[in-house]
Design a protein that fits this description.
Blueprint lengths: L1 H32 L2 H28 L6 H16 L4 H31 L4 H30 L19 H20 L4 H21 L1 H4 L5 E2 L8 H5 L2 H9 L4 H33 L1 H11 L1 H6 L4 H27 L1 E2 L6 H15 L4 H29 L8 H8 L4 H16 L9
Helix pairs in contact: 1-2, 1-16, 2-11, 2-14, 2-15, 2-16, 3-6, 3-7, 3-14, 4-5, 6-7, 6-14, 11-12, 15-16, 15-18, 16-18
């Protein structure tokens, strides 16, 4: 028995090494065939995507929680990057900052008072009327304070600012703050939806995600809305600063490199190092959690909630724990991604990119396997980036013998833009049919 298990473990390790070597070869091959800048772009977003996949894997693979609001938690991480790193706008704060803060405190107080009265009063018409009256009166008081202050803030040089700004702190500090924001939202959702049927959690996460995006798009005082926040601080030097550094230019020239290309590669390598450190730390923590008594308990709850409850386990409480932890990883990755982009663009948060694609990564890599989630993050992201240029080359080869004015040729070339969606769908179908447990199945 022990020999058989040892052989199985050895085969699994060999498969893991082989698949990760394949993904590394794809990224390195991109550097040789296209450019090292492209390869590093894929690597950096692969690192961020791997952390997102680990977050979803923690929720689904550990506990069987179906979160379809990944986009919202990622967006909260992006918002944290703005709130922490951007400098405050003194004029906006003078115009209405304290009033906005006061209105938000009033709104929170109204909610707290309504919850307090609901829990303390006896059920009946009096309780319902009292809570309703508190909410209605509080809403009008809140809007009376908030609306004038909001308009005053958004009118301050709206072309370049029009918002309160942030704290002006190093942007790396925004990464854990993004995790905390997402964890707080997950706690609120979990307290409401966990313990009910699984479809309620899916509906709640989907709804919250859309609400978060709507707030980011419309509350200009907070995030400039669709006007975007650009020029976020960086944890690494800017390319233009490196190109102005005589020592860097001299060193690049001595190595036979163009200073412009060398500066871009150097900056991307800096991000790669930072992101790799974070991913390794998160992966080690996730592996320790998975192999701990807590992780074994979570999998037991996932496999049979009724039996776990019969043994005295707090199923809802444990679900809340893992849901908050997984969402915190999504917020962390969202802050890292916004740091990499250098801007917050609320309109770019789409369910296809930030929910469906992350789920594809988890399913392809192997649900319940942390290394599988990391593998899926890198592999699926590489495919997402490279499918379109590969499709362009394939279609050019297929239509090489067709006339320039051929309707079929035009149709085939126009279809290249849809290759990503088609490829992801085909990959999902193939995986579900031939490898439903993923490339690296849970052991």
């Amino acid at each position: 028995m022990s020999e058989r298990r040892s052989d199985t473990d050895g085969a699994s390790r060999g498969r893991t090494i082989l698949l990760f070597a394949l993904v590394a070869g794809l990224i390195i091959g991109t550097g040789f065939v296209q450019s090292w800048n492209n390869a590093l772009v894929i690597l950096n977003m692969g690192l961020v995507s791997a952390i997102m996949a680990l977050g979803v894997n923690m929720q689904w693979g550990f506990a069987g929680l179906f979160n379809v609001g990944v986009m919202g938690f990622v967006a909260l991480g992006g918002l944290a990057a703005v709130l922490v790193s951007m400098p405050p706008v003194p004029e906006a704060w003078a115009a209405g900052g304290p009033q906005i803060v006061g209105a938000l405190l009033v709104g929170a107080g109204v909610i707290a008072l309504a919850i307090f009265l609901y829990n303390r009063m006896r059920p009946g018409q009096l309780r319902a009327f009292t809570v309703f009256a508190v909410v209605i009166v509080g809403f009008f008081v809140y809007r009376g304070l908030f609306d004038p202050a909001k308009q005053a803030v958004e009118s301050v040089d709206s072309a370049t600012t029009g918002y309160l700004g942030g704290l002006g702190l190093p942007i790396v500090l925004a990464w854990p703050v993004g995790g905390l924001l997402a964890a707080g939202a997950a706690w609120v959702i979990g307290k409401v939806a966990l313990g009910l049927r699984s479809d309620y959690l899916a509906i709640a996460t989907l709804g919250i995600a859309e609400i978060v995006i709507a707030i980011l798009k419309n509350e200009d005082w907070l995030s400039r809305g669709v006007k975007n926040v650009i020029g976020l601080p960086r944890p690494v030097p800017r390319e233009v600063d490196l190109r102005r550094d005589p020592a860097f230019v001299e060193q690049a020239t001595n190595l036979g490199l163009d200073p412009g290309a060398a500066s871009s590669i150097t900056v991307k390598l800096g991000y790669s190092v930072l992101f790799t450190v974070v991913l390794v730390f998160v992966l080690i923590a996730a592996q320790l959690a998975l192999n701990s008594p807590w992780g074994r308990m979570m999998r037991a709850i996932r496999d049979n909630e009724t039996a776990a409850e019969a043994m005295g386990k707090d199923v809802t409480g444990r679900h809340l724990q893992v849901f908050v932890l997984g969402s915190a990883l999504l917020g962390l990755a969202g802050a890292m991604m916004t740091t990499l982009d250098g801007q917050l663009t609320p309109a770019s948060y789409q369910p296809l990119r930030f929910t469906f694609l992350i789920w594809v990564m988890v399913i392809v890599g192997g649900s319940g396997n942390n290394l599988g989630a990391v593998l899926g993050g890198f592999l699926v992201w590489w495919l997402w980036v490279q499918v379109e240029p590969i499709g362009q080359g394939v279609m050019s080869l297929i239509t090489a013998g067709m006339a320039e004015d051929s309707a079929l040729r035009d149709h085939l070339m126009d279809s290249v833009a849809h290759m990503r969606l088609l490829t992801m769908g085909v990959i999902m179908l193939v995986m579900l049919r031939f490898a439903p447990r993923g490339l690296l199945p849970e052991r």
